[in-house]
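Why do we care about 3D structure at all? Because function follows from shape, and shape follows, mostly, from sequence. That is the central idea of this module. The next example makes it concrete: a single protein chain, its amino acid sequence, and then its structure expressed as C-alpha cells.
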Amino acid sequence: MSERPSAAKGSSPDTLDLLVGGGGGAPEKLLLIERPSADGRVKLRSWTSDDWSAAPAPAECSASGLLGEIERAVREGRALNRELTVVRCWLAPST
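And the structure:
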C-alpha cells in the first residue's frame, strides 16, 4: 500500500491542506487549496486513496463551487481533517 503524500511538503501559509474521508464508494481525497484570487477562483492539487503515489491532479475552479462540493461531502457523512468553518473562512471572498 502506498503512503499518503505529506501535506507539509507542498503546503505554505497560502495553502490549506484538506483531507476528505472516503465514503459512499468515493475514495479518500487530499486537497491542497491555494487562497482564492480576487475573482473568486481557486487553484488546487489533489490526490486520492486510489493511488497516493500518483502525481497530484491540478485544477482550478470557483471557490464557491469547491465549497459546495466539500459541504456536500460532509452532508454525506465524509469526515474532514479541518473544521468546516475553517474551510468556509479559507474559501470566503477576500474583502
